[in-house]
Amino acid sequence: MTDEKTQLPRLGVPGLPSGWSLGALLIAALVLMPILSVVWIAFHPTENIWGHLMSTSLPRYAANTLVVMVWVGGLSAVIGTLTAWLVVMYAFPGKKVLEWALLCPLAVPGYLGAYALVDFLEFAGPVQTGLRAIFGWADARDYFFPDIRSRYAAIFVLTMSLYPYVYLLARAGFREQSGSAHEVARALGANAFRRFWAIGVPLARPAIAAGTAIVMMETVNDYGTVDFFGVQTLTTGIFSVWLEAGNAGGAAQIACVILAMILALVALEKVSRRHSRFYRMSRSERDLPVVRLKGRLAWAVTAFCAVPVIAGFVLPVSVLAHHALTRPGRWLAPGLGEALTNTVAVGGAAAVVTVLASLFVVYGARLTRRELPRLLLPVTTIGYAAPGAVLAVGLLIPLGAFDNALADTVLALTGSDPGLMLTGGAAVIVYAYAVRFFAIAEGAADAAMGRVAPSLPLAARTLGQTAGGTLRRIYAPLIRGSVATALLLVFVDCVKELPATLLLRPFNFNTLATRAHEQATLEKIADAAPSAILIIAVSLLAVALVARQMLRTR
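-> structure tokens emitted (554 positions)
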């Protein structure tokens, strides 16, 4: 008997769950555990300070988070949508370069952009130094210069770092539209703006909304940028309440506010388009008409598309590279090699664990006769929406209690103290990374397996192959490209992750991200530059992969 949905043989004895089903359920439970743990701790705190938080700092944290999130989301939507429309609909000088260069800011995490911007614009930076030299000003009392460490600067940096999410999805949304609708609108006299506003944006709205939602979630997750600019958000509040005030219950309560905000954001996006329907206009697809721009207008479009690339990639990379290259001795600084080793080891382990677990869950859900694993499959993606600081709260507290109980038991039985075996090492960081980026690996695995013709695994099972043998001999060769892509994307995200690493790392354990953050917070941008350049170099691998896939879908 076969499953009507997947056309794969059902496994297991009737009435009993199969090993694949049980394994998928166990992995799903491990992914969801930190989220459920946060909720439990928030409602059962050792010392309840909810009333104190509500009357003091929580409204300020929430207001700053909402303001930054809305502004970054709105500006990213505008920049990403407009640049995507221009590169899809028009031909202008430098388009082929800018088409993929607009993705490059993804390689620069917001906190690295913040370090570079402050170094470039601060009193001792090249801009203000140059102004004083040109106009003869002696000190800051002779002229006005905006405060760099402000909420507006944080909004600017995060926007320049995150708009590519909208650009990438909006570009795909525009390219999938049929040229027939645009040609009809042009024949009816609609000008360029009218076609953009009445046809292009409505048809690409799901993609734009999805990209904007990702930007907002990443904004809420950010810690390094807002902390460096002195903006108190809900994420910085978790660090303050937990590490400075020593109240884990209060930190969990703030984490629950973040989760509620994220869930409300996702629900709002779905409700806003619940009555919208999007259909293809005709059976025969026609390519979008590309208009070749000339003269000043063409160069103006080139300049408009180049501005976010310069602000989000060229400027921060130039500033950091200047420090890294003019002071080569920093590359031999104590601790940098160890941080690089830790980053590769932890990120690599997390990538392998995440991808293997996602393959097991997706394959198990496709094979099982039961509905629960299939229902849990989309739920496990919630980890990506949960900020790293939230996952740290949900992991460290219960695992710490379990670790202490386990150590006490071993001590009582053997007389030797093993120490903290889970939270005392890097294993908890790998766990947090796996939960945080499980959605990326799961999405890649599900899409890849969905492209395999059901007749192939069915034939293998008919010829006597086990479920594991079918996975190794049929699926593995066909989906290895997608698996390699998922490994790279998860690894790069692990390299850039900061808040979860800061909260969960063992004593005297640094990754490239935490090392760069520590040096930058001490105003040692030159010392942070080598770590920052290595993070950007690794991240560019993922950007190059995405750009390569973009060019293939032309």
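The chain has two domains: 18-34+336-509, 49-328.
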